[in-house]
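COURSE: Structural Biology Practicum
ASSIGNMENT: Worksheet 4, Part C
STUDENT ID: 0417
INSTRUCTIONS: Below are two proteins. For each, the amino acid sequence is given first, followed by its structure token string. Answer the questions at the end about the second protein only.

PROTEIN I
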Amino acid sequence: MITVEVRCPNCTADLSQREEESASPFFCPHCKQTFSPTQLPPEERMWYFARKKNRIGPLSWAELSALMQAGRIQQTDSILLHGTSQWLAPNEIPELVSVRQTDGEADTVETAGPSSQSPQTEREVVVTSSPAAEKTDESGLETNIVVDRPPLPQEDHFNIRDVEASFGLLGPVRQRLEYLPLEEVFFRYRVTGLSTNDEDQIDMEIDSWVTDSSGRKLAERSHPVKGRLYFGGGCYTGSSFAELRSNLSPGVYVFNVTVRDRLASVETSFQKAFKVVPLRFAIVSPRFVYRDGSDAPAGGLVGQMLGLRFRVVGFDKSTGRIQTECSLSVTDSHGTLLLRKPVCRKLASDDPAKVRDATFLHFAEFFGLNRVGDFLLCLDAKDLISGQTDRLELPIRVGSSIGVD
């Protein structure tokens, strides 16, 4: 089931609506008000676009406008605003008319997956470049729309699949592509169809960079990946990230990733648009880790030690001091609090040099997994100077280390 996240314009509560209810008005259970999607700020509206019998979405405005700007949307396509029932041509939507497309004709889009009488929901747009591509535009790029489906036993088509914004390589999926300055933009993905040499080793290079609305590169990194695929399959789980500067201006940016298979001399890429909002007091970049600092999943087995580290940004330094408090509480699957009182940590300083240079505060807590079940970690942060607060809730699952629930 696919859900669409929106924010109530009346009380600002975050809401979820099932995709199959896309033609229904929104109802907020918090303020008991209904509202239409046109009442939402343009950057918070969700969209779909359809070509023939295939539908892509839900897409944020940043993702839709990035596709329009790149020429991926044709005037013969249809656009639907989530929460409405009328499909429109791109030139009938004022917001899209003002989006400047890049020079050249839009790429031919091929779809993969079964056809039916109703559009099939697509989840990603993946741009693949290969010398062997049969259908290409003038730039040599072939565009594939990849349908969500179970992985095949042997995937020999070189591609990037299952792209997710997440909190680290093994952490929870990030639901909204909305970031604060000083946050980490992190994407994980699966590369399929990799070639191997006689030693069953891969040899590839991953490039990633962030561009602003004018196409200017703001951050760029490149790293080689070599190693043996012990379990075969020609697939590899990769990740790319960028840390956002403290002075980054609010707006829409694009995260770009290109993977090159050096053995086969082919490459594949993806792009994801994301939004940067003004800095505020918040808990950001949570990451589950083991004792050695390596990434850990959101949970584990009874008997393991698990750590959670995170940053606090946007704290008040106007008085020349820092006074911030963070607390951790835990609930079970029924919402019952499991600690008599939250575990609290304070970070304070009145050292002028430290206060001046501080851009974020780092907190970490380690805990033993002593019980099987589903739990919720509740982080609360408070700026004791300004009175601002923030809360972050992270689900974790603990399993049995001896195969017994």
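PROTEIN II
(use this one for the questions)
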Amino acid sequence: MAEQHERTDEQSEPFYVSVPYEDLPLVLVREQRQRRYRKLALLVTLPALVLGSATVAGAYQAGIIGTEKETCVPDRVRAPERGSFDLTILNATETQGQATTTGTLLARRGFHVVQAGNARPEDYVKGVATIYHGPEGLDQALLVQKQMPGAELWDDGRSGTSVQVLLGYGYRRLAPAPPPPLPMPDKVHLNVYNTTWIDGLGAKVGRQLKSRGFRVDEVGPDPENSFNPHDRVVIRYGAAGLEAAQRVEQHFAGATMKETDREDASVDVVIGSTYRGLRPSSQVPTPVPPPPVIDHVERPCTPS
């Protein structure tokens, strides 16, 4: 019985021994560290997986992922002719003459500018310009917008195809464009004025110019009473008539070009005291009709 009791006591003794961490074999230390890292990774990964799943589900429901991106392609169409609608240019800034200058340049580019002046005192445009149009004038407004990059369109419900532009404080200049072609002679309106002592010289020159295709509106003494003792011919024109004046200049050797403040495209041919006649027709470039200007615009669209 005593032996059995001793065996029982031996079995109840502890089967492990406490060893300091620094005294453990290196293999056991590495294994212990790996167990801690696995526990830590598990604690970090599980919440991240749960959160990521919720984020993906939310993005899918919101249509950010999992659905095809809707595309919007503007409708590119042929624009109306530049001179086929009325265009008004108003200046909503404090820069004097800006509407007149811009209107003249647009007229030289073929637009039908019916008015250029100042806007109302209460009108204010911070950006480049505001282009007002109606439902029927969208393409016309888009065509004008191409001349003024950065301008905003505004449908004010007006009827017809007319367009009104309010130039703003952000406006600097029109978009670059090639020089306009010279007009054909039958598109140029002339006045022939005689400042010499030779009677009938103005009428003679007028007939010669008319035979070359120009439209001679008035012949007579110079209404400005100019005296040109050292000039052969003085060609007077406004900014809108620069190309017309250049066409007329081709027919005179030694002509003096003089720009005035007139607003239309008419040209004055003022005969001076040293006038020697027109250039022979063989020395004048043959006028070639300018090619038609074909513009396109892109109508804005909405994703479908």
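ANSWER KEY EXCERPT:
Q1: The two ends are 97 Å apart (CA to CA).
Q2: The mean pLDDT is 86.
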